[in-house]
Structures
1.
Amino acid sequence: MTSDREWLETIRKRLEQRREELVRQHQQGLRFLAAEGQSQADEGTVASHPADAASDVTMAEYQQTVLRTLEEELHEVLLALDRIAEGRYGICVDCGRPIERERLEAVPWAARCIADQERFEKELERQYRSS
């Protein structure tokens, strides 16, 4: 059985690997968007047919959504690494109780216990519906 210190070091390494992977994916996405923009600029037009224009816009919006998702996850990973460095990792940011180890192994950047995460998501959904 691994000690808490060894387990935490394993989690830290996983978070650092995930951070590197997210940064790499984000950079690739930015290069893709830049290349698409340059390709369209070289052609002198965004698209010659309305369906092509719609497809180009949809692809750009999709890529921007992917980039935003990567940025959000990267932010959560960085916060988790900060919590490790500060000795607060594994403690729910809402209730202050320990987060289940199984949850942290599944989602190493989790900041909330399952009950508080569910409440947090319901609140976000409620806010989204009311706006």
2.
Amino acid sequence: MHFGWWIIWILVIVGVVWAINRAQEGSTSSRPQRETPLETLKRRYAEGELSTEEYEERKERLERDR
């Protein structure tokens, strides 16, 4: 009987760990793992962090350095 409770607890712990890992995979898969520099630049411009002049200048520099 005592052995049965150990098995139940082990299964509960494994299930919780599995559920946590599964939840973390879902949250990270919704966004790309790494953005390219141009994607980062576009995102920052879209969020209003950069002015149009800054965006154009940095975009030209990135395209030139390719």
3.
Amino acid sequence: MLNDFMIRAALAGIGLAIACAPLGCFVVWRRMAYFGDATAHAALLGVALSLALAVPLFPAVIVVALAMAAAVASLTGRGHASDTILGVLSHAALAAGLVAVSLVPGVRSDLNAYLFGDILAVTRGDLVTIWLGAAAVVGLLAWRWSALLLSTLSPEMAVAAGIRPRLEQWALNIALALVVAAGIRIVGALLISAMLIIPAAAARPLSRTPEGMAVATAALGMAGVVGGLAAAWTQDSPTGPTIVCAVAVLFVLTNFAASLKPRRKGTNIRL
């Protein structure tokens, strides 16, 4: 467990857990799980763009993720429900990304790494990218925290207070694009949304305030990363899926523990 590649993997996973924590809370509060899936699936198109044009992966994925957000915003409300639009775009982006990546010479054998991640292959350069991305996400959400919370609780009150909910939604879109771009090397396009949703859902029964939920989400995410790495090492299982399984176990445990406690008003957050 003290090998260099395991240390780098743990640092990368912890950075991702920190970035996912506050963003995952808003994904859960705003019921944006499908939107997270659509953005993550679109990341495969960013991978294909990066490989085809020989440009860095991080900016290519960000550009495609933001394009997906713009497409969702423009198509929602034009004859179809938002979940229908998200379902169509999510699966279409995943299929198009798989086809595009397979058509780029020399990457067919690496497709699983983009789908499920390869955290054990993280380099020092990847660590810098991941932690800079995590710092950018946490900084952005800390800067817009109050406005985002008010827009989540009541868009009408936010407008009355001079806040533009659509602008706050774009702040979340940018943060989501950064997280997807940073996390695709760790857990892959198919599992990044799980790291956004499951730790936040696990922390919800334990939290009394939004800030407390963000902190608890980060702690549970980091615990899942370390536990998943240890389990993958001892059981020789796929690392990314094992990490997701570890945070899923934490979700079951926290919700089971919450169900054993007598319910009292104000004991947990309900956004």
4.
Amino acid sequence: MNLELFAPSAMEGTEELGRHACVLRGFAVAFVEELMPALHAVERESPFRRMMTAGGHTMSAAMTNCGECGWVSDRRGYRYAAIDPETGRPWPAMPDAFRRLARHAADAAGLGPFDPDACLVNCYVPGSRMGLHQDSNEKDRSAPIVSVSLGIPAVFLFGGHGRGDKARRVPLCHGDVVVWGGEDRMRFHGILPLKPADHPVVGPRRINLTFRKAG
């Protein structure tokens, strides 16, 4: 067993992906003790579910949301909504630990100040993936995207501004945070299918917290 797969990134510091995009290696590790109980509370209030795409396909990764609004997908399309369509209640409030991490990460990447109003929580298991896409449903595209990896490793695809542009493959480990904004805000990105693994804190899954300013 390669224990390096389950530890925080061996590489510390910042890895540049573009003029306004970077990976903050291991940045979220210091927040994990606060993040995990908060994550479990969000899961209990609005459980993970696999949403349907506008084309009628079931998404590979399960997801939920917290914050003032949540991202939803169904045959009517992709949008933000204040109400969880499964529970009929507002999405759980964004935990303070989540918001602090997002703000500190944006500042560390030189893309603050950042005050997210939505956090998409994706749950990947081995074999789950996310196709190349742009984050384009937000009204405020001047704010960055802050994406936190927890649990088993993944390979992040970071492409260009066209779907057919070659995408860079970026290994992500527990605690890594990717931040992109400015001229890199509308780059296509995704996740390759996850390989089987088990993490001592998160279990056999990867949790991705994606913070956005939707309104």
